[in-house]
Amino acid sequence: MFTKKPEPGESVTKIGERPSGEAKSSPFTERPATYAKAPSPAASKMVPSIIGEDLTINGNVNSKGEIQVDGDIQGDINCGSLLLGDKSHVSGNVVAEDVVVRGRVVGSIRGLRVTLQAQSHVEGDIFHQSLAIEQGAYFEGKSRRSDDPLAELRAEKAAAADPTSSPSSSYGRSDSKPSEFGSETSPSTSSISSSSSPLSSAAE
To answer: Which of 14, 46, 78, 100 pairs with 35 at a CA distance of 20 to 30 A?
Structure first.
């Protein structure tokens, strides 16, 4: 009842039949083309590693990405970006490009951008490129600005790994030699004095 009668001279196309003049193709060519979807910005961004309130870590923590700490860490932290929550407690040194402290840190902090928020408690030195301290934050230690504190740390580690390159180590070895000779000559002088004492008594 919904069909329309064709007008005189009008061609009728049946269901499933292709119009005249259109070439038939194989079923494989009728499939729509598929294109790879570009990853969304949210998917490409790395998800931060979260250390919960009920978690305690005894040892160092290393990561190339972002770490959010709400628990307790007894060790050093080295990462790209660090967020210490209100209930976090870190006993160790912190090294990261961006450091935001809301909890408690007992140890040195080294980063390009360091922020101590109002509820933070820091006991240790801070090496930074830029430092922001909010009102109410507790900070006990020394603050030293540097253009690249992370590069300084790498240089210190390289010098410690190769002690022969540092002039102070060579000076230390040269200073130690006279002390060794002094310890060796001291017993000989004491033995000479003790052996000469009977001769002097006999001559008398």
So the answer is: 46
Nearest-CA neighbor of 110 among 91, 138, 130, 90? Answer: 130
Structure confidence by residue, pLDDT tens digits, 140-162: 999 999 888 888 777 777 777 77
Task: List C-alpha distances in Å: 159 to 93, 156, 162, 165, 168.
Answer: 19, 5, 5, 7, 11
| pTM, full prediction | 0.56
Return d(Cα 133, Cα 143) in angstroms, integer: 11
